[in-house]
Specification:
heterodimer, A: 611 residues, alpha+beta, 5 domains, six-stranded antiparallel sheet, three-stranded mixed sheet, B: 207 residues, alpha/beta, Glutaredoxin, two-stranded antiparallel ribbon, 10 strands, 37% helix, elongated
Amino acid sequence: MRITTLRTIYSILRLQPRPWPEALAQDSAPRAYWKVPRGSPWGTTVIPANACPEHSRRAGIQARLILVLSLLLFAHLLHAADTPDLEDQTRAISADLRCVVCQNLSIADSPSEMAKQMRAIVREQLQAGKSPQEIKDYFVSKYGEWVLLKPATQGISLLVWVLPFVALLIGLALGIFFIRRWVAKKRSAQPVAADPKLLARVREEFANAETEELDLEDPSPRAQLLQERSRLYTDLNELEFDYQAGKLSQADYAGLRRDIETIASTVLGNLDEVAASAAREKGAERRRPAAKQTEVAQPKPGLRGWQVAVGAAFLLVFGLTLGVVLTNSLRPRGGEGDSITGDFLTGTPTAGKNDVSALLQEGRTAFNKQDLRKAIEVFKKVLAADPNQPEANSYMGMILMQAGHADGALIAFDKALSQAPNFPMALWGKGMALYQGKQDHAGARDVFEKLLPLVPPGEDRNAVVKVLAEISTAGQKPKTTAKPAAAAAPSSSSASAGQITGRITIDPKLKTAIDPQAVLFIIARPAADGGPPLAVKKIDRPTFPLSYSLGAENMMTQGMPFTGKMNMAVRLDQDGNPGTRGPGDLTGDFRKNPAEVGSKNVDIVLDQVGK
Amino acid sequence: MAWRRLIITLAVIAPVLWLLAFGFQRDARYIKTPLIAKQAAPFTVTLFDPPTGIREIVLSERSESTGDARKLSLADLRGRAVFLNFWASWCPPCREEARDLEAAWQKVKDKNLVFLGVALQDTEKDSRAFLEEFKITYPNGRDESGKIGVDYGTWGIPESFFIDAQGRITYKHVGGIRAALVIAKLEEAAKGIVSAQEGKGDITPVR
């Protein structure tokens, strides 16, 4: 808007009556004139009062305000004239296009970024003047027919539109066909051949137009039959009328007449029988009116026993198949251990299954609980099926590392890497095996450098960076752990750079019978802050004296370097459950705490009870 | 007859069950591309850094020099086989293939072949960090508006397109791709051979 217009509006808005003090004090009648403020478009003039009487002053202000506001709105509307229409069109077209990310939503409804970008493209093409069909064709040319929420009415997509109606028609046709057949069956069950003598009687009686008083309420068979007979005669009468009136063709008339006469003859025959066997009780049930005879003629429809059995068996097999197929196609829950709600349908597998991913999950949980025996068993099963399975091999390697067999671990990691060269866990394990197991710094560094780019930025990445830094500094220091092998404690681990090794014995005074379920925990706490344990090693069914080796692979958080001074403690938990501390538990602390990582002969004696 | 009815019932149920089994096995997100053997959609990207090598060649071949030296359009690359790779810094399979792609580029950069990477749905900062991390030297640009992604029907990254010298798409590979395949398909593209099927590797769906 131009500056002058703005100034005009401003000055209009500022225009307001100024109450003259004298006027207010002296009398209520308005003064003779207004004073117009400076800078107004009308200049500094004086307007006589009767030009703007009091009562119209406010009205004048309101009028001006309205004028100004409407000017502003109008200007805005002028700019926005085509936008509502564009938005509506965009939305209409977007509602017909499927979002690539949230694949059951249209891009009008989908919150994903791709949908936003696609909407922008639609709007842009609309502004460029393309028609809705062209825009849809554009998207179809990029993503295929699939991207239209309403399939095109051409080619194979036509089936989608047409098939429901076709199915409806087929259903109706089948329905009519079957009903007709059923009705025809009913009718055709009647005896076709009629006794000619009876037929003759029918015609005779009909000709005589015999009418009887009938008691409609009488339920006895004879009365029913008489009613039936009179009905039939009425039908015959009507038939005659229709034929005389020309409504029926000769063939129809003949056919219908024959039918009715047949029925009537059987009715008469039944009447005779009823009259003849009125004394016999058995007859009453069997001699029913002709209309009901057809039901007796047909075999009673119904399911025989074996049909029911087959149906039930089929349903059972179907249900079982569905259940088995569904549970096998479910992926087991990753991450945590057993599910709380049970394990049949929610995916935690039982031991019997052969599914690789289920076994892997089992192995993972067993490993995390440090139930190494079970973990080995499970992973061996996986490897029996697939010797190069990367994850199983990596875990086996980790277990071997914990046990101190660096060579075996390396073989396992290499097997894993042969199948999946970029498997992070295998690379990490191999690096640690080379670094700590074989003291091969150069090799370890290569492996860790290969691993580094595969790990997205985060905790794990920092761990790898730290280890790499450690390797490069460790390589420069002279090796401090080269003690003669004979004098060293018979530690099962060949590495000592990042390990604490030693022996654990029980105080002879406390040598009680060890519970077969007893579990030994070797706990390392950082000496500096005395916080939670940094590394824990769990040994099932320990036999004493026991040689142990605690290293980086036993750390609570994998990937941190195992360095510095540690307070070493051991605990022999009699019930095997670290959560409960029973009175029979034995504990012991390293006498010369803290121990530096890398030291050997960190021998601990279990000499306290139930702490 | 009871047998006939049973057979008819089975004949109706069995195809439905088969359809169910078939449906469970296919990847629900998979979108088959209609773009193979079609002309590649034109686009222009602003490159992150004017790369060495291909840029100078391209510029020198253009009759008039256009304003921004960092803009590269597909038309500039006409006459060469192009490997077009869509990636993003937040996509793990892209990380896995980045080194492979750089290695492949080092092998073919002296031939008349072009590698061009386009970052989708990514910020400038993250894309640069990605390129620096993997020391990528072939030209890369960023798709700011998302139009290039839609133009090529991307649904899961990384996606790789092989474009021949006339600008026709000869092969599309959805997912992580190996260096050997890249070089093989690029040579096919140079000869103008159109592949019959698209390929599939590990993908991350677009956002």
